[in-house]
Amino acid sequence: MNFEEILNAQEAMLPKREKLPLGNFYRKQIDGKYRFVVELKDALTDSIAFCEAVKKDAQWSLRQRVKHQLHFESHEDSGGLYELELESGNWQTLSQLLFASPAVVAQKSFTDQVVGGLMDYTEKLHAEGVYQLCFAPSNIFFRKGDNTPVLLTHGSFYLTMGNQRDLYGDCERFVAPEVLEHGAVDERSDVYALGKLIEYLFEQGSMPFEYKPVVKKAIAADPAQRYKSIDDMRSALSQRRSTIRGGIAVGSAIIIALLCFWVYVEIIPPAESIEFVKPVQSEMESDPFDAVYDPETGALEEDTTLQSEMDAMYQKKAEEILQRRAEREAEEEKQAAKRKAMRALGSKNDKEGEEEDEDE
User: Which of 12, 44, 221, 345 is 20 to 30 A (C-alpha) from 192?
Assistant: First the structure.
């Protein structure tokens, strides 16, 4: 089985034709090669405004050398414009992708990559004054095996058409009310369309908490109540995610702390209550050797007489020491006075001897 046969087998498992706002999307053989084309609606090709818009859209798209832009060529015959031929690649719409693998939406990385990629390219479109206006699943393409979203045509080139409902048909739910009613179109119109796409992605499951308030504001019927730009919408979404991550971190820390406390309580044995008894104070404060044995009672009694005699002896000894110290001090004073008198007498004798020598 060659590559073309493998592609044919895969295509047999998917809807053969996908209905797009512009017409039918399918794969056909051109010059011996299989190409993906969009067969335009007759109701649209009858409009000169539509045909001119397709040509302008194709010329503008060719200058966009980014991974989110799908280039195409318009084919005409004697009857006029009838078909768009997509650049070489194995393409599928978001509708076909979800039909083949509906569980892919449950992958958070897929949703974030799709929404983030569309936000990035939409901001670039707005910088050049171009608006997408419709993010219907049949209006978003993917290369098979790659989750990078790409866009084919851009709605703002077709605003010259008299009736926008003829262009979008069954995809009106993904288009802002002001676009369908020929009101003022700006960045908030794409905010609405992108919010509707996110709502669609989570129709079969629970929408993540961070998306809910953002989508609710994005799809408000009144443009003044929506986000003013894709950048504001992206910032709100990032803030919600940061808040959730912070809450999860705090909650995890609390759970870990409680778990550690529980482990500590379970591992460490409980402390036993020990009653400390105050020791009984002995009534016998005096030295037991000072007690006297009483043969009649068989008990030791304190000998107060012996204690008194010992006190008297210590008192007498102290008085004797003091008396000897006083006598020694008195004797020292007496000897000092005697030495002083002797020195005075010696001085007097020396003076009298000197006077006698002078008389002679």
Answer: 44
Question: 132, 151 in Cβ contact below 8 A?
Answer: yes
pTM greater than 0.70 (yes/no): no
Cα Rg of the chain, angstroms: 56
pLDDT digits (tens, 9 = 90+) for 208-258: 888 999 999 999 999 999 999 999 999 999 998 877 655 565 566 678 777
Query: In DSSP terms, which residues pair with 151 in a beta bridge?
Result: 69, 140
274-287 burial string, b = 16+ CB within 10 Å, else e?
A: eeeeeeeeeeeeee
Alpha carbons within 13 angstroms on the beta-carbon side of residue 359 total 6
Dihedral sign, Cα of residue 316, residue 318, residue 321, residue 325 = negative
For 7-58, strand residue ranges (E) read: 18-19, 23-30, 33-40
How far is 68 from 15, CA to CA, in rounded Å?
Answer: 24
Average predicted confidence (pLDDT) for the chain: 83
- List the beta bridge partners of residue 300: 293
Where does 52-119 show beta strands of DSSP type E?
72-77, 80-86, 91-93
> How many CB atoms within 10 Å of residue 20?
24
Burial of 29-48, coded b for 16+ CB within 10 Å and e otherwise, reads eeeeeebbbbbbbeebbebe
